[in-house]
Design goal:
Strand content: 5-15%
CATH class of the largest domain: Alpha Beta
GO molecular function: glycine hydroxymethyltransferase activity; methyltransferase activity; pyridoxal phosphate binding
Radius of gyration: 22 Å
Catalytic activity: (6R)-5,10-methylene-5,6,7,8-tetrahydrofolate + glycine + H2O = (6S)-5,6,7,8-tetrahydrofolate + L-serine
Family: Belongs to the SHMT family.
CATH topology of the largest domain: Aspartate Aminotransferase, domain 2
Structural class: alpha/beta
Number of strands: 14
CATH architecture of the largest domain: 3-Layer(aba) Sandwich
Cofactor: pyridoxal 5'-phosphate
Mean pLDDT: 96
Strand order of the largest sheet: 4-10-9-8-7-5-6
Enzyme class: transferase
Bound molecules: pyridoxal-5'-phosphate
Largest sheet: 7 strands, mixed
Helix content: 40-55%
Low-confidence stretches: none
Length: 418
């Protein structure tokens, strides 16, 4: 790697300097965006490898180009490991990222105009779950269910009524900003009653399913589970579609040639490496620590008087209502924390009265901090910093001293791969 770096430095200093800057930024601060993580050095190695040179349209054993002996090997290994990690019958590891992954499922299993019952966006659903600005929202008819913002529960009697009324072809659960686990058995029961396909978008928590620290939808008979590979799973950017065998031909055809061209084989090599790690006992420990850290951080924030959507967390993330807690919106809170090298993201809360660019809260998650080795005592410190900064938005001196405290704290935790 060093050799490549020297070349880059000599031949394209602008890009090299930006890379060094990003490395320093990732090292200096605490990364709390719940969808981000630090991948393994081995994965960085595969991403920067000659697998990026190769076209491999098709699937192992039936490609449209020659020279596939090694690409077939890595994709076969990645698919087998994915099936083992997620306990499922079929895996497609070619989606270029989370969004095309979900698109491929809809396009493969549904017809344009079909109805999908999915979680309301402000309650935790994702853009690809039919936001009006997404093409999926234009192609399919999305109907919404909501959650109870006080305790996070889903009213399944209401959901059943909606399902009976609208007869969805698919019931979709999974989230991007919901701090609780899901009752897959309840979703499945309703889906069976109306003859709907069951799908979970586990993009955020694929790693937690892999570590077996939250429920696995396949244990409840779900048909399809999608997950990104770069969030809690700690892999390269990419997506995976996991499903029952009966859906495999339609899913594979939808990914290629339906939606995509050549897969990114350097990412697929990285996904294979990531899934081997996910099968090791250390990964289970990692998953447990992600949850313990989130719970500790949430408890400390609650003790300080802060308000969390649904009152806490059962997974790797929480949504802090900054309007209610400190009288500031999520954009201001995100910027205040940025100034002290704590990275979060502004977040709409259920039925948010504020606009999306100035929403009422921020989203905080522990996967990246846990990858650096942070534990409970560190979460207590972190909660203290977040609280003092957000309680004293005008205090510039406090921001300066806190930033240097945080930077020296962070120097104790090496960043994997840097
Ligand atoms: C992150 C995410 C996606 C999209 O992933 P990209 O890789 O950003 O395209 C899809 N669904 C959910 C629930 C997500 O959290």
């Amino acid at each position: 790697m060093q050799q490549y770096r020297n070349l880059l430095q000599a031949n394209d200093p602008d890009i090299f300097n930006a890379l060094s800057g990003e490395e320093s930024r990732q090292r200096a601060g605490i990364e709390l965006i719940p969808s981000e993580n630090y991948t393994y050095p081995e994965v960085l190695c595969t991403l920067g490898s000659v697998f990026t040179n190769k076209y491999s349209e098709g699937y192992p054993g039936r490609r449209y180009y020659g020279g596939q002996e090694f690409t077939d090997t890595i994709e076969d290994i990645a698919r087998e490991r994915a099936k083992q990690v997620f306990r499922c019958e079929h895996a497609n590891v070619q989606p270029l990222s989370g969004s095309p992954m979900n698109q491929a499922v809809y396009l493969g299993l549904l017809e344009p105009g079909d109805t999908i019952l999915a979680m309301d966006l402000s309650h935790g659903g994702h853009l690809t779950h039919g936001a009006p600005v997404s093409f999926m929202g234009k192609l399919f008819n999305f109907i919404r269910y909501k959650t109870d913002p006080v305790d996070g529960s889903i009213d399944f009697d209401e959901l059943r009524k909606t399902a009976l009324e609208h007869k969805p072809k698919m019931i979709l659960c999974g989230y991007t900003s919901y701090p609780r686990d899901l009752d897959y058995a309840a979703f499945k029961k309703i889906a069976d009653e109306v003859g709907a396909i069951t799908m979970t978008d586990a993009s955020h928590y694929g790693g937690l399913i892999a570590a077996d620290v939250i429920r696995n939808p396949f244990d409840f008979g779900f048909d399809v589970v999608t997950s990104t590979s770069h969030k809690s799973l700690r892999g390269p950017r990419g997506g995976m579609i996991l499903c029952k065998k009966e859906f495999a031909p339609r899913i594979d055809k939808a990914v290629f040639p339906g939606l995509q061209g050549g897969p990114h084989m350097n990412s697929i090599a990285g996904i294979a490496v990531t899934l081997k790690k996910a099968l090791e006992p250390e990964f289970k420990e990692y998953g447990k620590q992600v949850l313990v850290n989130a719970k500790t951080l949430a408890d400390e924030l609650l003790k300080s008087g802060a308000s969390l959507v649904t009152g806490g967390t059962d997974n790797h993330m929480m949504v802090l209502d900054t309007e209610k807690s400190y009288g500031i919106n999520g954009k201001v809170a995100e910027e205040l924390l940025d100034e002290v090298a704590i990275t979060t993201n502004k977040q709409i809360i259920p039925d948010d009265p504020n606009p999306p660019l100035k929403p009422s809260g921020i989203r905080i998650g522990t996967p990246a901090a846990t990858s650096r080795g942070m534990k409970e005592a560190d979460m207590v410190k972190l909660a203290g910093w977040i609280t003092t900064i957000l309680q004293n938005p005008e205090d510039k001196n406090l921001a300066v001293t806190t930033r240097s405290e945080i930077e020296s704290f962070c120097s104790r935790f090496p960043v994997p791969g840097i």
